[in-house]
Amino acid sequence: MAGAVDGAASVFSHGASQATSAYCHAVSQSCGQPTVSAKNPNQSYSGAIGKVYTYGESASGASSILNQADKEHPAGSTVGVGKAPADESDARRQALTTSGFVGLACIVAPETGLLHTNHMPHSSSLRVALLKQQAGPSPAAHADEDEETDGLGDLPSSSGSRPMVPPALAPGAFGPLSSDDCFAVALELDIPCDADEKKATMRAYYTPPKGGASTDTTVFVCHHGAGFGALSYALMARALSQQTGGEVGILAYDCRGHGRTKFPPHVVNDMSLGALTGDLMQVIYTLFPDAAQRPSLILVGHSMGGAVVVEAAHALETDPQVRVLGVAMIDIVEGTSLRLLPDMSNIVRQRPEGFVSLESAIQWHIKSRTIRNPMSARRSVPSFVHEARGYATLPWRWNADLLATEPYWHGWFTGLSTKFLCCRAARLLILAETDNLDQTLMIGQMQGKYQLVVSPHAGHCVQEDMPQHTAETLAHFWQRNDRLPAGLRPVGQS
C-alpha cells in the first residue's frame, strides 16, 4: 500500500533512505532526455537529444562545468542539478537555483563511474502502425493534468543503478513527468467483469517486442501492488526494453479500483484474489486473442501483485495455448505479510486524506520514504490520485480505497509461499531484505527451488527505487529460461 510506514513495509509499501554520491551532473531537461554518456567526470558530453554536464568532488571542477552550463542555458531554462560537492558554497547553490537550475538529475555511482540516463529511442512509426493514430504531445509536467491523459496520446479502445535522493530537492523537483518515453502505447482493454457480461475498461501500458508479438517472442506482464499503479513499472520497463534490445515486450496495467481502470460500481471493490486473477487472465486473452500468435509470458508481481501472478500462473497451467516461462515476485513474503496485517488498517489511516496539489502528493511519497527514486515517483504518483470535486481543501484524493480491501488481505497472502514454490514455471523472488524470508521460502531456497535476488539499497518499491537493477535481473531471468536447448530444464522449474 502506498504510504505505509517502516516496519510494515513488506506488505504494502516501504520507506526510503537518502543516499549521496561523489559524482553529479546537470541535465538539460528543456532539450529532452540525454543519451548515454561516458564514465569520466569533469567533462561535458553532447547527446543526440540533450546535453549532460558532470563534475567530480572538487568545487573548482563543479564551478567550471556549471559556469559553462549557465552560459548555454539562460535563466528560466530547466536544468536538473544533482548533489553539489561538500565544499560547494551556499551562495553558489543559491545562484544555481535562481538562475534556472531546478529539478533533480541522475547521479553517477562512485563505485562504478557509470552515468545512467533515461533516454530510450521512441518509435513513432511503431505507435502509428500499432494504433493507427498520431502520437500524443511531448512530455510535459502539468499539475492540472486531466484524468484521461497521461502524455501517451489519445487512447484507442480494444473492443544495477542505485536510486539517489539528495538531502534537499530544488524547487520544481516534485512536478509530474510523462511516461511516454517508457512505454510505446497506452491502451484501454474492454474485458468482461461479471456474470451479466458487463464490461470493465482496463488501462494498460505496452511496449511490444520488436517485430510484434508472436510465439517466438516473450512479453513480461506486470501487476502492481495495492495502492500503486501500472506506472510503478515505467522506468523499469524502459530499462528492460533497452537491455534486451527490444526483444521482449512489457505490459503493465492498472488493476480494478486503481489508476485509470474503470469497473462498474457493484464489482469495483471486489478485490479478492480470484477476481484479480481473473482480470489478469482476461487482459492476456484480450490483448493476445490469437492463440497461434500468442507470445510466451513472464508474470511479474509487486507486493499484492505477486500473489496475483502466482495464482494466475497456476490457473494458466491448465491452458495448453498459454506458455508461462517464469513467475517473478517483488518484495512479498507470506510469513512477513501475515504477521504485519493486524497493524495495517491503522497504518493506512495514518496516510493523508488528500493533498493540496499533485506536486504535494509526489512530494509526500518521496519525503515519507514510500518511493526512494524521485524520477520514478514523478511518473507513477500522478496515477495514484485524482482531483476530486466538492473538496474545498485537499482536493487531490486517492484513487484506491485501501481500507475497503481489508476483507481480502488474508486471502491475498495465505498459502502464497507454497503456491510460489509449486509453480511449474521458473521462479524468481526479488527482495529488499533477506530478513523477510519465511521458513517455507528459506527451505525452498536451500533446495534450489527458486532464484533469490536481494536489492539492499531499495525500499519496498524495488522496481521504482532501482529500475535499472530490477530490469537487469529480469533480463537475465528471461535469457536463462527462454533460450535453453530442447530437453533441458532451468533450475527452479518443475
UniProtKB/TrEMBL annotation:
Protein family: Belongs to the AB hydrolase superfamily.
Region (Disordered): 72-92, 133-171
Listed name of the protein: Protein phosphatase methylesterase 1
Domain of life of the source: Eukaryota
Gene Ontology molecular-function annotations: protein methylesterase activity
The EC number(s) this enzyme carries: 3.1.1.89
Record keywords, A-Z: Hydrolase, Serine esterase
Domain AB hydrolase-1 intervals: 220-468
Reaction catalysed by this enzyme: a monoacylglycerol + H2O = glycerol + a fatty acid + H(+); [phosphatase 2A protein]-C-terminal L-leucine methyl ester + H2O = [phosphatase 2A protein]-C-terminal L-leucine + methanol + H(+); a diacylglycerol + H2O = a monoacylglycerol + a fatty acid + H(+)
UniProt keyword Phosphoprotein present: no
First-level EC class: hydrolase
Biased composition (Low complexity): 152-161
Gene encoding the protein: PPE1
Keyword Transport: no
